[in-house]
Amino acid sequence: MIKTYYGLPEEVIFCKDCVISNQRPSSTVEFKHTKNEKKDTIGFADDGVCDACHYQKVKAKDISWEKRNKSLIDLLDKHRRSDGGYDVIVPGSGGKDSAYTSHILKYKYGMNPLTVTWAPHKYTEIGWKNFENWIHIGGHDNILFTPNGRLHRYLTQQAFLNLLHPFQPFIVGQRIIGPLMAAKFGVKLVMYGENQAEYGNNPDDNLTPTMDKKFFSVSNPEDMILGGKSVKNIIAEKQFLLNDFAPYIPPTAEYLESKGVEVHYLGYYLKWDPQECYYYAVENTGFQANSERTEGTYSKYSSIDDQIDMFHYYTTLIKFGIGRATYDAAQEIRNGKITREEGVSLVKRYDEEFPYKYFHAFLEYIDITEELFYKTIDRFRSPHLWNHENGVWKLRHAVWSI
Question: Are the CB atoms for 329 and 320 separated by under 8 Å?
């Protein structure tokens, strides 16, 4: 037996319909049965097809999007205001998904959204341009929230060194900025875009329109884990105070309930398709694709606002054998944009590409050396995924070789 890390299954299995493998974190790797609103199950255990692909078939055949749209209108009518106040919070960066969400809520459904942005670590040039276009062309009010830079850089550094997950502090902030701002401004509805369950997290989460309350269940802020350390230990080791962590501390479910705040996913009500969101954003908010494809993949329009973003996906390649091209190709296969054969070819060509463009900016941002970067990267390679031969790391399993 070869040692495995992170509780991953030893046997690597690729989905027969797309290019994702059972090494994807947060997935139900046995392709378990799950319930939906019309049938007892979606998916068929051990049929070699991932939950995300099964759910795509449910979206195509088993969901009445007309009824879901009616439910959305009922929800919005419940919260709609006529006194000039904001009636929905839309978190986002001005990328294609948040641009689509905020614009369609305002101009099709007649809501008055306040958009809120948890700032990227380091804006790319195209990311800042799209952010400005979202506000000035898309026509939205916005609050750009930038957390304590010294603390955020430290947390990002520690998340890379301890977890090989440099995006963890950003994800925490991005997830809770909406509910925090809703409570602050007296807005009772928060609308995020798609639920990540669409891409392979617990598929049962697709059956509810609201965010799981487990994200708002922190009882003692000092026990929170950020960057692989407890807040209490960080305070003891560094010159930070508990108050510095305020933006990372989620409001409790009880607090949100007392304020009447509901957190929903637009993707539950409207059939979500990332490429169609892109087309909509281009036409309505001035969104622009990058002039060059993103390193590690073939696309030019997805997650292009943050210089650190590329290293998030590179670290998923190291830990799980799944890079950015795999994620992009898998969802585009499911949405009928490319064939599986095309997806396999794109993964083979781009998935293991190193993100050189912002490499030195990343090292400077988290204050580590190039030597420590590679040492850390290699420490997190699971032996069941990687083999070291003649000084070169190679994946033991690849979707193009099965």
Answer: no
